[in-house]
Inverse folding.
């Protein structure tokens, strides 16, 4: 059974930074593509960023380009989301998800087989 555990969320001021971590177990790390999604109160879940199995390919939703960076560390079985220049509109629960059938699973939530429990990020103005 694949398990994903997010951490690193919290309360930060407008313009601040946070790094989210997603520890993945139960499957060989190099065989899964990973993404971050988020869901704000009263809104639909939205795609944030994705990374390929190798880590060589990444993508971002337009609203976070230049501010967020997704990366992965095979030695730690962990995927990171470094978030800088945070804005109040980034406030949401952030979820890590992994896909077993794709080298790079992209923006569609349906491509991802396993999800974490989420971590809250709150940006105050």
């Amino acid at each position: 059974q694949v398990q994903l555990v997010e951490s690193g969320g919290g309360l930060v001021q407008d313009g601040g930074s946070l790094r989210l971590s997603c520890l993945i177990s139960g499957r060989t790390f190099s065989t899964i593509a990973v993404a971050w999604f988020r869901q704000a109160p009263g809104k639909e879940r939205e795609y944030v960023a994705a990374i390929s199995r190798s880590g060589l390919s990444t993508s971002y939703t337009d609203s976070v380009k230049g501010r967020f960076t997704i990366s992965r560390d095979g030695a730690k079985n962990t995927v990171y989301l470094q978030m800088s220049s945070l804005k109040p509109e980034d406030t949401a629960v952030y979820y890590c998800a992994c896909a077993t059938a794709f080298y790079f699973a992209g923006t569609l939530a349906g491509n991802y087989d396993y999800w974490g429990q989420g971590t809250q990020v709150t940006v105050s103005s």
Q: What stands out?
A: The first strand starts at residue 3 and ends at 7. The two ends are 40 Å apart (CA to CA). The CA atoms of residues 19 and 120 lie 12 Å apart.
